[in-house]
Write a structure and sequence with these properties.
Blueprint lengths: L29 E2 L4 E3 L5 E10 L10 H12 L16 E10 L8 E8 L10 E8 L5 E8 L13 E10 L13 E6 L4 H14 L5 E3 L4 E5 L8 H9 L2 E2 L7 E4 L4 E4 L4 E2 L2 E5 L2 E7 L3 E3 L2 E5 L2 E2 H10 L4 H13 L7 E3 L1
Parallel strand pairs: 13-21, 17-19
Antiparallel strand pairs: 1-12, 2-9, 3-4, 3-6, 4-5, 5-8, 6-7, 7-8, 9-11, 10-11, 13-14, 15-20, 16-17, 18-19
Length: 342
């Protein structure tokens, strides 16, 4: 029996076709800054343990370790709790506070913080995070957080036990960065290591300055010698490098998110001749004709992935069917591009 061609269940499958028109198939130049970072310049993650007060009966209940830890925190503020295990502190919640400290933040700058419940609190909204030191992995305090928490909106579906404090942390000390080596060099680190991109970036830098300015250590790292005229203006030199235009190679790939049923792919990803049977659907790529013979989808020898998805859609394949067939094509070595499953 032929499968119905009416509107099917592929609502959650999104086909993103990149560079559909032939004129756009040429390489696209981007600033080097958008695909790289300067070596030694990085973010740092901070964490702290704190308590949220002022909750309307939605705080922690009688969990022993939470009550004891809250009692210890209150002791630091001069509040003594004689028997913490006997108390039900439902207007207070123990929380973990996290934040990201960007490079070059100075003392007195502010950070957004995320506050997450550690106990059995039902809802942290409406509470106030009391003073919470935030430490880096080395154990030093780099910021202190405090303030009213918010869910970030009024949507009831938002997770009420993970909230934020916008600008809720003050930076207490800066993180020193050493991005200029003793030999007067800096490193440009590509975000997605690629030999072609590294070679083109080196060529762009050397064309702008001098032939010996840059060299690629590997597919990810480019060593750049600071010219003598920029010794006192390293920032200006880095700015010029980051604004140079580079053409990254165009890479086709297929990305599948099994949780959401999303399929993202580039165009013109070829598929080698193959035959696959999945449940009640058969797929064959082996001749110059396109046909749908009952439950069999027959496609020409020169076929792309987006054509396969369109054909499967036409015969009523489900989202799971499409994902399973693409995965089978990849395992059979029939895809001419890498497949990533998230």
């Amino acid at each position: 029996m032929q499968i119905s061609k009416k509107v099917t269940t592929l609502i959650s499958v999104i086909i993103l076709t990149i560079f559909t028109f032939q004129p756009l198939l040429a390489q696209i130049s981007v600033p080097l800054e958008s695909i790289s970072r300067i070596g030694g310049v990085r973010e740092n993650q901070l964490r702290g343990y704190g308590i949220v007060v002022g909750l309307d009966g939605t705080g922690d209940g009688g969990i022993d370790f939470v009550n004891r830890s809250i009692a210890n925190a209150l002791e630091q503020h001069g509040i003594s709790v004689q028997d913490p295990e006997a108390e039900r502190l439902d207007n207070v919640a123990a929380v973990m506070v996290t934040a990201t400290l960007p490079a070059f933040k100075q003392s007195g700058d502010k950070l957004d913080v995320t506050v997450s419940s550690l106990g059995d609190a039902d809802d942290l909204s409406g509470g106030v995070l009391i003073e919470t030191p935030m430490m880096a992995p080395n154990g030093e305090v780099y910021a202190v957080a405090q303030g009213a928490v918010t869910k970030g909106g009024t949507d009831d579906d938002l997770h009420p036990t993970t909230v934020t404090v916008p600008d809720g942390a003050l930076v207490e000390q800066e993180v020193p960065f050493e991005f200029v080596g003793e030999d007067g060099q800096i490193q440009v680190q590509l975000r997605d290591g690629n030999f072609t991109t590294a070679s083109r970036a080196v060529a762009a830098i050397n064309e702008e300055f001098s032939p010996q300015t840059a060299n690629a250590e590997n597919a990810n790292t480019i060593n750049v010698q600071i010219p003598a005229e920029f010794t006192d203006d390293v920032v200006g030199f880095i700015s010029q490098i980051q604004n140079l235009e580079v053409e990254p190679p165009r890479e086709s790939r297929i990305v599948i998110n099994e949780r959401t049923g999303t399929v993202v792919m580039g165009d013109n990803i070829a598929v080698r001749p193959v035959a696959i049977t999945h449940r009640n659907i058969s797929l064959r790529i082996d001749n110059d004709d396109v046909a749908e013979d009952g439950e069999t989808v027959v496609l020409p020898e020169i076929t792309t992935v987006d054509q396969i998805v369109d054909a499967l859609n036409a015969v009523g394949a489900s989202t799971d069917d499409v994902i399973s067939i693409l995965d089978a094509l990849n395992r059979a070595g029939a895809l001419n591009a890498p497949l990533e499953v998230m």
